[in-house]
Amino acid sequence: MSETRRPSLADQVYDQLLTKILEEEYPVHSRLPTEEALAESFGVSRPIVRGALSRLRDDGIVQSRRGSGSYVLRRPDRELISFVPLESVSDVQRCYEFRIDVEGAAAAWAARRRDDDDLAAMDAAYREMEETYQQNALGVEADQRLHLAIARAAKNPFFSSVLESLSEQIAYGVKLSRSLTLLDTPVRQELVLAEHRAVLDAIRLKQPEVAQATMRHHITAAKDRMFVGTQED
């Protein structure tokens, strides 16, 4: 997803640490070795290790505790590497972070401005997505069509233009999240549909604050479904 570039030493240490976390050499809730020990292990300086740890913190994978060190909060789902290279995890998360704010705002404006045609477009996209879920298909296009219909209902072309310009990156993340959902229990699939229904219900009822909150919750949950463990321990 990101521009091709030569990985820095910090990037390389990040990838190696993430691999160790994925393989549970460092399990969820465990304490990582000290910066000094990691620097010696990887043959790099402590500032390089610090940079890698900073990125892992930004990704919500590790947490630093004052006077105690760094601890693993969560790890990528083992199936994740079947679909994407491990180094792309940060890119996927950054796209989701951007969507949380932009699409949350779009949903709020949609709740204020939607008309009957908008509701019809959203309902049609939702039914299509529901059908693909019943068929255990990915449904990436239907998912994107629904989110775009919500953005268009905001009656502000900047929202829909942003989603259209990022369609490839968004589809990448949706495909990943959806692929993991298909491998999980049917309950998870129903949960995803319920999240979308909650957003549409709030827009239909003209509840901007609820629409924003439910959209933000949905996209945050989609991002977090790539991981095992929680950020809230």
From TrEMBL:
Keywords: DNA-binding, Transcription, Transcription regulation. InterPro entries: GntR_C, TF_FadR/GntR_C, Tscrpt_reg_HTH_GntR, WH-like_DNA-bd_sf, WH_DNA-bd_sf. It comes from the Bacteria. Transmembrane segments: none annotated. It holds the Pfam family GntR. CDD domains: WHTH_GntR. Residues 7-75 form the HTH gntR-type domain. One of its GO terms (molecular function) is DNA binding. This is Transcriptional regulator, GntR family protein.
